[in-house]
Write a structure and sequence with these properties.
The structure holds two protein chains of two kinds. By secondary structure, chain A is mostly helical. Chain A is built from 16 helices and no strands. By secondary structure, chain B is α/β, with parallel strands linked by helices. The chains are: A mainly alpha, B alpha/beta. At the A-B interface, α1, α10, α13 and α16 of A face α1, α2, α4 and α6 of B.
Chain lengths: 484, 254
Amino acid sequence: MSAPTVAAPAGERRARRRARAERGRGASILVAAISSGFGTILIAATGFIAAWLLAAPYLAGRETVIAVAAILSALLVGVAMFVAAIVTTNTFATIVAGRTRQIALLRLIGASARSERVRVAREGLVVGVIGAAIGLVGGTAAAALLLPVARMAWGIDVDYSLLQPVLAAPALIVVVTTWAAAWAGSRRVLEVTPLQAISGAAERSAREAVGGRARRITAGMLFFGGSSVLAAGIVLGLVSPLGVVVAFAGGLLSFTGLSLGATVIMPPLLRATGRLFGRSAPARLAAENALRYPERSSRMAIGVVMGVTLVTMFAVASQSARQVIIGSAGGEPPEELLSLMDTFAAIMMSLVAVAAVIAAVGLVNLLTLGVIQRRRELGLLRTLGFAIPQIRRMVLIEAAHLTVTSVALGLVLGVVYGWAGAQSLLGSVGVPPEFSSPTFVLPSIPWATVGIVAVATALLTAVAAVAPTRLATAVSPIDALAGD
Amino acid sequence: MQQTPSDTPAMAARVQNLTKTFGVGESRVHALDDVSIGIRRGEFTAIMGPSGSGKSTLMHVMAGLDAATSGRAWIGDTEITGLSDLDLTVLRRSRVGFVFQSFNLVPTLDVWGNITLPFELAGRAPSALARRRIDALVESMGLGPRLRHRPHELSGGQQQRVAIARALATQPDLVFADEPTGNLDSRTGRDVLGLLSAASREHGQSIAMVTHDPVAASHADRVVFLGDGRIVADTPRRSAEAISAFMLSSEVGA
């Protein structure tokens, strides 16, 4: 149908488009690099602090401090790697979706579904190795630069050699998790039939299944079980500060349940957000697009939720604790303790923000790949009379759907978890005038943090929409007519 | 937008001295070479020609989807040469309908959403009159029980009927159909052609259909042949046999 005279430019265009679609892997390399680099830096920092503490023989309970620092580092790196794995799973799921025809063609000429899947997963391995290597080198270099600064700033004189085998641990874990994530994301290769290569069928936008039954049950059990443990921790906290340990375990379990059940929780929330944007054609199409692949959108949203929840949690916990401490001191706050707490909260917040950054990378990537794969449909909309500003609005609203929903949920969860942490830790602290416990800790909302998160959301939305908008508005109406 | 004198009231769309070239220098190719043609109002016109004859390019330019290298084009009385992208977009939305070979429905919208999409894009609900027209279209296409289905739940023939209903819903000046039967089996294809010619015969809808299938073209009131970017024949309705014979004899056949 297309004239041979125009075949050359069309071919070039297609090749370029394919190259762009494959670009999605860049995001996986980036998140692998960030998480392994982050891990390397944290290990170096923890080792440095441990060496410093061990060199100071007079400090009581230093083993506990070192153990806590090590556990915190492991948790922080774990969260970052988990979010990175989500991003990679999504990226590969999207890449596979865009490659359906090519995979079908290979199946048609005799490739087995399994060998095709292994091939995709191998790409994940390559991506993981490249990203982890960049992260390892970058992280080590950053640590090498930062440690002397820390030595000078705090006048620490300690013998600590940076280059230790353990530094490579995050990189190795990232390689394995990226590989596994690519394997998980390539599941749909198995569903591609050879027939799809020859049938001229239009895109089948069958809604993805919402996870298995077993997974939903596990998620539910984790969430409700974890919430009960969290509640028990709060109750225990009324008599002992050790309640925070129980509450911590409960929080971890319940949040894992939430993450597993993302595909159940997120779509209704996304739909509710959709109502905020009105009923215009761009808004309605954006709402449908945000839910076109509920599994991918939910996974991605939960990554952002995780980052925002953690940041908010530390802010709320420290703010709430601050008020109890001020109260219990009878209005004469122990400045040193407060400033120590603020510093700790600030450090933790900036460290968990890394997970939020990784999630943001994934979000941008998801939207961009989505637009690239919808090229034909965008061309159709242009043909039927969608003006460029309407296309732009549609993409922006689609991005806003994901960011607004996940940030709102993250803020709510962060306030709940942060309050639970403060309550379970400080519920047994007596407060004047009677110095009676139990004390009820009022959840204190740090509006500055909420404000920063809101601004960051708006920024993220804008940034997430930039690349897809540019791609989407460059689609010409004729793209809808060109066969592929 | 420039209004032309009303000396061509009977044209739904026309082009004058249209030339379209691709590439530069050695590889420069004329897709259209000084083509002038009008699509008469109320007529079902088939545009035929082998691959590379320029028929798709002609359609793209006539429908305001692509700009010509030189020459002028009108839709109704509105000259579209040199219109801005936004003006062209609004013009397509309200005055041109499209039917594609691969149906091209929006997969996230149901049948009703797809049919009313051109109204949605304009930011208005269909008027009472338009609603009645859409209801009648839905009825005549047998889509009534399918209104809440999504495209992937429909057969090819049903999808193409939705696309036709969408194209006719706004009562455009002109409907462009690009190989509308290319992805359908012959019986379903015949149904679709019947729907198009009925729209033209019974409702005076102007239709321009690009095809290389003589059977499809035999449903049209007028058959225009393109070859190497020029119009090589322009004839009234013919049988599929006559069209095939002409294509073979003139060596412009597919």
